[in-house]
Amino acid sequence: MNTQTIVVATRNIGKLKEIRSLLKDFPVILKSLDDFGPIPEIEEDGETFDENAYKKASFTSRILGIPAIADDSGLVVRALNGEPGVHSARYGGDNLTDMDRCSLLLKNMNQHAERQAAFECVISIAVPTGAALTYEARCEGVIQDHPKGENGFGYDPVFYFPPLEKTFAEMSLDEKNRISHRGKALLEIKNDFDKILIWIRHQMPIFDRVTCQEGCHD
User: Fold this and answer.
1) Fewer CB atoms inside 10 A, N or C side of the chain?
2) pTM (2 decimals)?
3) How confident is the model over 63-82, as a mean pLDDT?
4) For domain 4-203, which CATH number applies: 3.30.70.20, 3.90.950.10, 3.90.180.10, 3.30.420.40?
């Protein structure tokens, strides 16, 4: 089977590393947006993770002309009425660091005894024609009252997973891939990936080869 190039529609090195780790045994080259020249920014203005994931994947695929994978993931906190939700990556403003966002979340949780939360993930795989496949998963946990752990990214240091008695930031990449929202969705993709590669090849547009007629010039 020929190697398939797919762009992961992100500049987040952590996400790219997770996806490469899970799909490393397949004939696929995974690139990120940083492997290409400047492309227009994608406005993530959907009201659901599903809408944002599809928008990112389909837009990127149309712009670059190759299949694209995009995820929209977020932290849904029960006591905060589902916040930060689809705004997880921009919670508190565009200029905050991951640790700033964790601190803001903990500040907003100060008056709440209810600590239940979940990470949700929707992954869209799109081709330039607009066709797409969708995978989704969820991981339940609780919000810690202080950050713990050095691994991962985003809200990992404050998201505690009771069955392993660790935050996501205390887990190895292999541990996290087995139980996280994105890991579960990617595992479904991994299990289906041979079929996905066939689907991609059937969906990709075929461009007619143009033969130069008499009188054509280079």
Assistant:
1) C
2) 0.83
3) 95
4) 3.90.950.10
